[in-house]
Amino acid sequence: MASSAPPLITEIMSMLVVIPCISSEWCSEHFLQHKALLKVREIRSQLLEIMTKTNMAEVSCGINSDVVRIAICSAFFHHAARMKGGTVITCI
What we know:
With 92 residues, the protein is mainly alpha-helical. The protein has 4 helices and 2 strands, in the order ααααββ. The model has no long low-confidence stretch (mean pLDDT 76).
């Protein structure tokens, strides 16, 4: 995946691609953490459940992974800093 995205975003995108292929042997062969991929699968199933309850359509972004990158960055930005006692505290 040739991309100029930050390493964390690229790692998350890679995890989204390999979710269906989770096995500890496969993870060892490809230098991935099995526990991390299981957590990704759990989060994905929770999101799908929320989407089902709110009648949202499950739509693939296809080859346009920029949509996913924008969503991930938006979530990080939202949690990047907080106000505490009148001053901004950086959380990252």
